[in-house]
Amino acid sequence: MSKRSILVTAFTSFFLMSCSEQTDVPEPLQNGLIYCSEGNPESFNPQRVTSGTTVDATASQLYDRLIDYDAAQQTFVSALATDWQALDKGQRYRFNLRKGVTFHSTDYFQPSRTFNADDVVFSFRRWLDIDAPYHAVGGGFYPFFAATGLDQLISDVEKVDAYTVDIVLTHPDSSFLANLATDFAIILSKEYAEQLSEKDQQRFIDTLPIGTGPFKFVSFKKDYHIRYQRHEGYWRQGPDIERLVFSITPNANKRMLKLVTGECDVIPYPLVSELKSLNREEIEVRSEVSPNVSFWAFNTERPPFDDPQVRQALSYAINRQAIIDTIYYGNAELAESILPPTSWASTDAELKYQYNPDKARQMLRAAGIQPGFKMDIWAIPVQRVYNPNARRMAELMQSDLAEVGVDVRIISYEWNTFRRRLSRSEHDSVLIGWYADNADPDNFFRPLLSCAAVASGSNRANWCHTGFDQILYQAISTTESAERKQLYQSAQQLLMQQQPLLPIAHSMRYQAQREYVKGVELPPYGGISFRLAGKEQPAQ
Amino acid sequence: MTRYLMTRLFYFFLALLVLSVVTFALNWLFPGDPLTNMSGIRVGQVGYETMLASRQFDSTVVQQYLNYLEHIVRLDWGLSLSTGTEVWQDAATYMVVSAELVLLSFLLAVLIGMPLGMLAANYFRHNIDKVILTSAMTGYSIPVFWLAQLLILLFAVQIEWLPITGQINPLYAIDSITGSVIIDVLLSDSQYKLAALQDATLHLILPVLTLSSLPSMLLLRITRNQTIEVLQKPYVKAARARGLSQQRLLFKHALPNVLQDVLPQLTFIFGLMMANLVIVEHIFNWPGAGAWLLKAIIERDYPVIQMVLFTLMALILAINLLVEVYRGWRFPMTREERYGGY
């Protein structure tokens, strides 16, 4: 055998060996799970962001909260706090903390003590107290807490003893516990923060995270993957899998392909109709009723959108049923209000803004808008639960509006630029949406349309109405359900009159996975959780 | 030869200099602040003022350019606007990642293209020649992005043999030390080296196949045409008349002369591969310089764009220089062809 033919044989046999059917799956693949996420997280601390991508990658994986919300039972359940009680007529909440909860031990931090009240005080002060040493780290901006007004509501966080913490409120608020159970109210390690301060490396607190959650952080390669390792000694039941990888795959088609080839075990935002048409039995598509709304918000600071009549007229011009059929393939419900029908505060309102181009045209002329009026629609460049394809939606609306003599330009920047310019209110109108963080109906109103939310940037309509704020304030000051329902009903009526935004759809939330994946939870509120994730049988 | 070498080197550095002027000018042509584009430090950020002074922005443009040149020579390309890390530090791994892909593809292209080309020439106008030439034409006409989709459909979706994204299954937790996945696996202390190596090889197949398709078809055609031409030369006929075997004739006598004309084409092929590299890396999520460049363009990360553009072009120039020098040394008459005798 000549030297050359030996080489050829070696090459061929290696190639064949590689291609041959694998009989047993190597251990790392058996005990690991790949989730193909849709984008890069902005930070590894959910306190600092509101984007779903970041929440998915951090909140339920790396951290725990004081209390959790059990959607099935519709109650709050204990997490890092074992129990709690309201004191001083609901102005002080006392939390008894769990003992023996360990923080992650990694190559950049080894904890010397377990979780205690100092960590709770530190974590809350970080966003609450502008003088706290870590408040300014990473920009000093905590949008969720600003938008829900939690930073105004809590006047102090006091350590009573090593395992007891009091949270003092400025006034009783029935949405308080619901906000505490959200993905944003996570607990950081004070000891880690102190170590970083000594080394003058404060910025690492959000890039090399330490928490108490079911997984610990291993590494992050931007645009490629995030690696996690199971947190051994997690205080409650943890995952079966040892390793978790978020493989970053922004392209929806590629995500689907990777699920088909088995390179992903679970994917978010699947192309449902296409996946179903593939008809593969090893792939499961799951859906969950989800508290979200997509809407078309008018920038009410800009004329002529400061005129309610113009906003109403434009709302009549949109054929929303066509949008539901085309963009959501019918997997969504036409939104009558921003509050989803599944909420306890929802009422059967009749659909006011039925598609009616003639009426829209009349009203526009009455408001002094001439044919040929030009406006922008900003469409988010990413897929969201509430809006799988905003650009396409904008195109449908463009043709609807052309019918009534409005000339629409569609604007869609790269996501980071888009958010930055949106927060500078450079838009005429925007197609965006909201995903509820907790079960309280307040979560749909205050973060989206209160005056406080104008300042914090989550009120995309820039709409500030004192009467409306008054109603919301009354609604959170009482715990009486019937009274609150009444108040939210009047709030919704006021919204229909004023129409700072046009609600479009309440969408189902979808996730596709290989059939052997078990325990990947899609909680109705908040991000995905891999706490109980496992594989039923080894992958083939 | 020395004089030839010096001339080539002179032209090489002249081209680099012109290239650097272009990238320097890009700082002004890109939107935004020139200093930000150059150094990656945004207006108003800490260190902007000192950077302004250290880059001599208070001085003349010529002075600024010389300063810029000095930074390039020190490989200081500033900070990435999207990650804030040093561009050159990131670049090293990205470059090696791409180098692995390009080298393997190039090797495959040579292994496929040249033998098939000679085979076709040997059977000039026979059926074998026609079959090879037709398939080469077909392969040559398929755009890379389309070919990639076809291969994915066939090998990943229909028969489920091959993975389609990345260098290796991320669950193997192989740290990227050098960037070359094969070397990284061998260096790692993973217990599952063999399985990881196998997985990495499977991940390599589709991108390498896609990237090598166009170069191999090109090489095939060039080799075929040159061989046909050489085989018709009088000295081959003379050799054949003396009873040399066809095999000996091909490899011993024709091949060196064929190589002489194939070599300069390699530069062209290399440039072509660089262009396709961006597409292939993007499609297969290959964490290399091409995909990095594309992302930098989308994210308007100007320091990265500059660095990658300059380095890729400098590489093409360097390959060109190497090929020319080798050719000048190995085939002295090509020197004469160009420079008439010295």
UniProtKB/TrEMBL annotation, chain A:
Origin superkingdom: Bacteria
Residues in Solute-binding protein family domain copies: 76-453
GO MF assignments: peptide transmembrane transporter activity
A Pfam cross-reference name: SBP_bac_5
Protein name in UniProt: ABC transporter substrate-binding protein
Keyword terms: Signal
Entry similarity comment: Belongs to the bacterial solute-binding protein 5 family.
GO biological process: dipeptide transport
GO cellular component, one term: ATP-binding cassette (ABC) transporter complex
Source organism per UniProt: Idiomarina fontislapidosi
TrEMBL record, chain B:
Domain ABC transmembrane type-1: 95-323
Classification via InterPro entries: BPD_transp_1_N, MetI-like, MetI-like_sf
Compartment list: Cell membrane
GO molecular function, a single term: dipeptide transmembrane transporter activity
TM annotation in the entry: 9-30, 101-124, 131-157, 200-220, 262-284, 304-323
GO cellular component: plasma membrane
Annotated PROSITE patterns: ABC_TM1
Major subcellular site: membrane
Topology of the protein relative to the lipid bilayer: Multi-pass membrane protein
Keywords per UniProt: Cell membrane, Membrane, Transmembrane, Transmembrane helix, Transport
Domain of life: Bacteria
PANTHER family from the UniProt entry: DIPEPTIDE TRANSPORT SYSTEM PERMEASE PROTEIN DPPB-RELATED
Family: Belongs to the binding-protein-dependent transport system permease family. OppBC subfamily.
Protein name (Swiss-Prot/TrEMBL): ABC transporter permease
